[in-house]
Amino acid sequence: MKHPFQIGDTQVYRKTVTAADFARFDDGLVHAVCSTFSLAQAAEWAGRLFVLEMKEKDEEGIGTFLTINHKSPAFEGDIIEISAKLKSQEGNSVICSFEARVGDRLVADGETGQKILKKDKLARVLAPTK
């Protein structure tokens, strides 16, 4: 595993909110703003930007945890900027803190964890058991 980063380095992902990001469940639309689930997925992607540059060709990242504090709404058409900051990297574990903002307004913050594993090991771990 390569490590071209220093603790405190950041990666940024920008996402435009669409109707596909709205909070929906089996009983229908909850509200027409970006859901916590969609924010969590974007936050995990922002942290994955580190993993993509760290992993070797025979390795892959897998999420280990996610904490998210949803602070304010993001509306359809808003551009959310998710800044992931490398908090720690020990062995194959990568932990990032993140902030999601629309302009100056904080939409969410939290942390993500990922591990980088050999693809063959990951395939064994994720293989269905009978």
TrEMBL record:
InterPro entries, A to Z: FlK, FlK-like_dom, HotDog_dom_sf
Domain annotation Fluoroacetyl-CoA-specific thioesterase-like: ranges: 17-119
Signal peptide residue numbers: none
Name under which the protein is recorded: Fluoroacetyl-CoA-specific thioesterase-like domain-containing protein
